[in-house]
Amino acid sequence: AGVRLKLSVNVSAASLADPSAADRYQEIVESYGVEPEDVILEITESSVMSDAARGLGLLARLRLKGFGLSIDDFGTGYSSLAYIQQYPFNCIKIDRAFIDPLDKTREDAQIVRAILAMAGALGMGTISEGVETEGHVEQLLRLGARNAQGFFYSRAVPKSELLDVVQAIESR
After folding, report:
1. Closest CA to 143 of 118, 161, 165
2. CB-based contacts of 153, cutoff 8 Å, min separation 6
3. Partner of 125 for a Cys bridge, out of 15, 91, 148, 164, CB 3.0 to 4.6 A?
4. How far apart are CA 42 and CA 74, in angstroms?
5. DSSP state of 66
6. Which residues lie closer than 8 Å to 64 by C-beta, 6 or more apart?
7. How confident is the model at residue 171 (pLDDT cuts 50, 70, 90)?
């Protein structure tokens, strides 16, 4: 229908332990006629840290193949500036724990603002997860966030309804 979407996929720690995972993921997306650039692999900090050396090698191969890599649940695990610099992530998912109270506490807004600034300085994108209210959207826009996901936009829908949902979101 002429709509190009990005697909985000959660990746398990077990997948990161498989040295052939990068090639396997490439084969899967190619078999469906999807470009790796349109796939964002969401990886929790803890899954990479379980075997940092192997994880770094796999993530580097995935980025070279064109996949997007997102740190999932950022701020709730092993986050450190050294960690962010060491791994080839190009996106940070701001955990819902910081989004949920956004329209209630000033501190959470300051944390989100700091994460957005850090990501911008490092040339990384961000996605705010757990966006459920118009208040969340308004606050995130004020803070400079431009990408979000959550029930405010849509709950999970069957494939047959996806195009209608995407068009409704784009018209907002």
Report:
1. 118
2. 131, 165, 169
3. 91
4. 11
5. T
6. none
7. confident
- The number of CA neighbours under 13 Å toward the Cβ of 87 is 29
Residue 60 pLDDT level (bands cut at 50, 70, 90): very high
d(CA 6, CA 34): 10
Tokens read off for 67: 């996949």
According to the model, what pLDDT value does residue 151 have?
Answer: 94
Long-range contacts: 136-140, Cβ < 8 Å, 24+?
Answer: 136/99, 136/100, 136/102, 136/103, 138/103, 139/102, 139/103, 139/109, 140/99, 140/102, 140/112
Write out the H or E segment, with its range, that includes residue 133: none
Measure the CA–CA gap between 111 and 88, rounded to whole angstroms.
23
Written as six digits, the tokens of 148 are: 């979000």
Q: Which residues contact 49 (CB under 8 A, 6 or more apart)?
A: 55, 77, 78, 83
